[in-house]
Fold:
Amino acid sequence: MSVLTKIIGLMGAKLGAQYEAVQGSQAWSSIFRPGSVFRKGYTDSPRNRSYVIMNSVLYHLHPVKVKRHAVKVSYTLCLGGLSFFLFILLTLTGIFLMFFYTPDATVAWDNTAGLMDEVSLGRMLRNVHRWGAHLMVISVFLHMARVFYHGAYKAPREFNWVIGVILLTLTLLLSFTGYLLPWDQVAIWAVTVGTNMMGFTPVIGDQFKSVLLGGPVIGSATLLRWYVLHVLFVPFVTVIFMAIHFWRVRKDGGISGPL
Ligand code: HEM
Structure:
């Protein structure tokens, strides 16, 4: 055996011993839960294999069993998944847009115009955000149509249908509140028309309108309110309802059908 092989062998043994010591430490086992292959003493047993699934944040989201027809793209057309994907895409591009935008009536339009002409990739990311928003409204609507066509609103999925209706409303609210933010003529007049219509709501119309406008007419206070609704409040509520929606799909026995 050459000296070099001996040195490599010794270094390997030393590293192995150190790795085992780290694996046995309290800090290590607080990070990796039972069943992790990184934990000391992992053996390939049926119990450990199920631990791997149950204790992994990503694996445990998947059901243990799925119906054969449910994995066919032609059944769901992946429209629910597509709606979720678009929501993630909108969140990521929206965070990018927030770096260059101030919700103040004196600068909002200049920020938007600057984003288009002065910021690298600004025009593209703004358009991805805008088109993504239109697509999300379409895909959520088509997903609802698919669910209706398959009769998946029937027992035991009635509650999830109601959660779905709330999600559709939240999607439309996300779209509408974002519309004001560029602070151009189209945005200001669209929101003027929208809030005037809300003013005709029976009983609470006037209060509803003035809460949304932040004053008697559309102005800086309106912009700030709609900005907070668009970037924080509505997305936060949407995430909560999406979590309930996905959890219910699992608890209601997976995807409906077959027809
Ligand atoms: C942000 C909006 C939404 C997202 C992200 C979403 C996501 C999903 C996903 C991923 C699934 C499982 C796979 C699939 O069916 O494509 C699903 C199923 C379902 N969704 Fe939605 N959904 C949304 C809106 C809606 C709406 C508007 C309705 C109805 C009003 C609805 C009702 C249902 C029902 C009843 C199921 C179970 C379908 C079945 O078992 O065949 N969802 N949703």
